Amino acid sequence: MSTIQNQVADGEITREMLLRPLDFALLDELTEGRNLGANLHMLVDASSPYTLERLSQLADYGLVRRVGPNENAGLYEITPLGEAALAHREEYGEVDDFEALIEDAVDE
Asked: With bands split at pLDDT 50, 70 and 90, how would you rate the model's confidence at 1?
């Protein structure tokens, strides 16, 4: 199953940000500060491969970023966009364009 839902509108393919409950748990843990994927999977009680897959997807969405001198070391931090996603998590699934909502929140 793809984590990004593709929609065709006026001949253009658009990508919709699809988040899972685990994603919000990961973002919530990262509000405490930078952390390693290896630690995060234990904190959110999920398998390591699935946690790392979701962290990679969150990085693609711009909600977290890989940090450190070696970005492949597995150290992550939340971004302002990720903080906005957390602040608006109750609206996820209720609004037509969650990504636009959180981008607008960051721009304010």
From this structure: very low
